[in-house]
Amino acid sequence: MYLKSLHLRHFRNYSDQLVGFAAPKTIIVGNNAQGKSNLLEAVFLLATLRSHRVSRDRDLVQDGASLGEIQAICDRALSPVELVIRLRSESRRTLAMNGVSVPRHLDFLGQVNAVMFSSLDLDLVRGSPECRRTWLDTVLVQLEPIYTSLLQQYNQVLRQRNALLKSIRQGGVTFDPQQLSLWDAQLATTGTRLTRRRSRLVQRLTPIAQKWHQAISGGSEQLQITYTPKFEFADSDTVEQVQQAFLAQIQQKAIVEQRQGTSLVGPHRDEVNLTINETPAREYGSQGQQRTLVLALKLAELELIEAIIGEPPLLLLDDVLAELDLLRQNQLLNAIEDRVQTIITTTHLGSFDAKWLDSAQIFEVQAGKIHV
Ligand SMILES: Nc1ncnc2c1ncn2[C@@H]1O[C@H](COP(=O)(O)OP(=O)(O)OP(=O)(O)O)[C@@H](O)[C@H]1O
């Protein structure tokens, strides 16, 4: 997969900017707050239909405009594709592919695949469980576009069940056990789909991340990644067995849930545990060691997407490369070679290994304008 061009109109601080990508590596250099991350965010949106920074389209549309647009031309193994996302400050976004409107998000996903590595990813180690869940969801949406619908269905059921629990707690409705058990069943059905997929993804990512982690850290540390739902199930369990375990746990928590007025069991509460030498990664080691771990996770993500999709995804490195020492920069360089199209942002070129600069095209960005 190769991103040939990107055209941003009224997107963030870009009024009208066309960018052509003519080399395997593109380095975008500029001072703070000029639009470097904004450009990577646009590419990431094409791959996931999610921003890694905000959840409202209103924030993505340029201040003062009502319509923002991201247009991209990509070369895929089979044929080139033109993609358009139209973002509106006051209404829903719309999507188009090769000039034809695409009503369902899942039909748009999968055209562009990307792995983003930004300073926000250090939250994978240090941040809340939600950061790690979101990470898995972002990978799954790309590997299996239907996942985006499964996620929506689950969130809708969760919202409605939470609203019911809340009004039970507040005494707003007479408690109807039958009504609640209908929601329990739906939560278990939709939630099981997410939990099983996330758990399988972790199983596939783990050996690859362990391999990279050993290579980068010199082989002495043992990384372990485990997906930990709020109820136990075995990999060999059938869907029905997992749903039963889910429901049994909901029943066990029934009184506490009604007291707290919220759902306590389900993928929205699951955890992904990262440990190094059996110590939680957030308590383990220096910032540099934690950065090594995140790099290993990102390389695992890249390798797995490439293995499943059959083409390397784009790699988006948002201001993180200069923070890696030369050894780790070179590990990364060797891993991606010229196979993986990479877009890199930085405030200065000084700390880059010369090998990065050799095969790169370099753009400068200033106040939402790109200069070659
Ligand atoms: N919706 C918007 N409309 C107009 N400008 C915006 C919008 N959203 C963000 N900006 C502007 O974009 C700039 C931030 O750009 P960006 O986040 O890409 O920074 P950057 O170049 O990556 O810098 P840093 O190194 O600080 O992250 C700020 O000047 C901000 O005011």
TrEMBL record:
<feature type="binding site">
    <location>
        <begin position="30"/>
        <end position="37"/>
    </location>
    <ligand>
        <name>ATP</name>
    </ligand>
</feature>
<keyword id="KW-0742">SOS response</keyword>
<dbReference type="InterPro" id="IPR042174">
    <property type="entry name" value="RecF_2"/>
</dbReference>
<dbReference type="GO" id="GO:0009432">
    <property type="term" value="P:SOS response"/>
</dbReference>
<dbReference type="GO" id="GO:0005524">
    <property type="term" value="F:ATP binding"/>
</dbReference>
<keyword id="KW-0234">DNA repair</keyword>
<keyword id="KW-0963">Cytoplasm</keyword>
<dbReference type="InterPro" id="IPR027417">
    <property type="entry name" value="P-loop_NTPase"/>
</dbReference>
<dbReference type="GO" id="GO:0006302">
    <property type="term" value="P:double-strand break repair"/>
</dbReference>
<protein>
    <recommendedName>
        <fullName>DNA replication and repair protein RecF</fullName>
    </recommendedName>
</protein>
<keyword id="KW-0238">DNA-binding</keyword>
<comment type="similarity">
    <text>Belongs to the RecF family.</text>
</comment>
<dbReference type="Pfam" id="PF02463">
    <property type="entry name" value="SMC_N"/>
</dbReference>
<keyword id="KW-0067">ATP-binding</keyword>
<dbReference type="InterPro" id="IPR018078">
    <property type="entry name" value="DNA-binding_RecF_CS"/>
</dbReference>
<keyword id="KW-0547">Nucleotide-binding</keyword>
<dbReference type="GO" id="GO:0005737">
    <property type="term" value="C:cytoplasm"/>
</dbReference>
<dbReference type="InterPro" id="IPR003395">
    <property type="entry name" value="RecF/RecN/SMC_N"/>
</dbReference>
<feature type="domain" description="RecF/RecN/SMC N-terminal">
    <location>
        <begin position="2"/>
        <end position="350"/>
    </location>
</feature>
<dbReference type="GO" id="GO:0000731">
    <property type="term" value="P:DNA synthesis involved in DNA repair"/>
</dbReference>
<keyword id="KW-0227">DNA damage</keyword>
<keyword id="KW-0235">DNA replication</keyword>
<dbReference type="GO" id="GO:0006260">
    <property type="term" value="P:DNA replication"/>
</dbReference>
<comment type="function">
    <text>The RecF protein is involved in DNA metabolism; it is required for DNA replication and normal SOS inducibility. RecF binds preferentially to single-stranded, linear DNA. It also seems to bind ATP.</text>
</comment>
<dbReference type="InterPro" id="IPR001238">
    <property type="entry name" value="DNA-binding_RecF"/>
</dbReference>
<dbReference type="GO" id="GO:0003697">
    <property type="term" value="F:single-stranded DNA binding"/>
</dbReference>
